[in-house]
Amino acid sequence: MTLAAPLWLLLLLPLAWFIRRGQKPHAMRMPQAGTADYGLGWKSKVRSKWIWLRWLALTFLILAMARPQRNWNEEKIKADALDIVLSMDISPSMLSKDFEPNRLVVSKQVAADFVEKRPHDRIGLVAFSAEAFTQCPLTIDKKVVKSFINELTVGRLEDGTAIGMGLATAVNRLKDSPSKTKIVVLITDGENNAGYIAPMQAAEIAKTLGIRVYTVGIGTEGVVMSPAQRNPDGSYSFAPRYMRFDTQLLEEMAATTGGRFYRARSERDLEFIYGEIDRLEKTKIEVSTIRRTTDYFHWCIAVAVILLLLEILGTWVFLRSVT
Fold it and tell me: Between 48 and 133, whose confidence is greater?
């Protein structure tokens, strides 16, 4: 709530009060029959205070002249949004412990942060191991996307790494998109060893459809504590394993579509990569602000009128004394 004009006139109220007191005639009170024992009547007591209604009404009139108002700022955002699909590897090797606590948990956390930073874009989610499926279709509801990211677990699909299937499924989600910019961010930690669509074939399809692919290789090379076998209860037994990485394939896939390949050997690397993609793929936003003002001076005038009417009625009707 703001005032359109200053309240300097309120300073005149104390001045007017003192002037009125100085002009008040002095009178000598004479005792009257019937009052010596009982003091002043209740009307006389109320009448002496009733004048405050007039001063209060004057205060509200001055407040109305200052025009109390409330300003409303309404923003209209026009965004040239992007369509982005995250294609995430959920093969057993994503449980490897070269990240704390493992590769999958870190990948999910950083991906959720990336989604939070893209408020105007539609984002979808694809998961793959030996096969691929759409975990979440394109949506602007970031809470839904982050919820599906958090639900990603290893063991839902057959073991293996079908990079081509992961990319092809993501491309299929984007092929009918009306967006001018369509992007796939593919995260994997292994070599392609499954699936009936070759990774480069999927990359060529993405190129034909104008879809840019960013490939991210997560994990360190060498001996890593990694799942060695699956137990009957669905859990995994871990053992030291030598991990390899086919960076050349991921580089060629990204280059074919006009994207980039990134290598993430730590959580900090992965955060930097998502930050780099966020910087490269900026959403064009046009913000227009509409300012609206609501005045409340008429409420002040209404209160002042009511107070004046009460003061007049009280003085000349209810509190009038007849002598």
Answer: 133
**Could you tell me the end-to-end alpha-carbon distance of the chain, in angstroms, rounded to an integer?**
50
- Which residue range(s) make up the domain with 164? 82-282
Give the total number of structural domains in the chain.
1
Q: Taking residues 221-248, what's their average pLDDT?
A: 88
Instruction: Tell me, yes or no, whether 323 lies in a domain.
Output: no
Report d(CA 145, CA 142) in Å as an integer.
5
Q: Is 271 among the domain residues?
A: yes
Cα–Cα nearest to 131, from 157, 149, 153: 157
Spatial separation of the C-alpha atoms in residues 45 and 294, rounded to whole Å? 42
pLDDT tens-place string over residues 276-313: 999 888 877 665 556 677 787 788 888 878 877 877 77
Pair of tokens at residue 46: 């109320």
In DSSP terms, which residues pair with 236 in a beta bridge? 230
Has residue 314 been placed in a domain?
no
The CATH number that applies at residue 227 is 3.40.50.410
Residue with tokens 């994503």: 94
pLDDT of residue 123: 96
* pLDDT bracket for residue 214 (50, 70, 90): very high
Using a 10 angstrom Cβ sphere, with 0-12 exposed, 13-18 middle and 19 or more buried, the burial of residue 221 is: middle
Q: What's the pTM value of the predicted model, to 2 decimals? A: 0.68
Run of H or E including 20: helix 12-22
H or E stretch covering 72: strand 68-80
Relative to beta strand 182-188, strand 211-218 is: parallel
114 belongs to a structural domain: yes
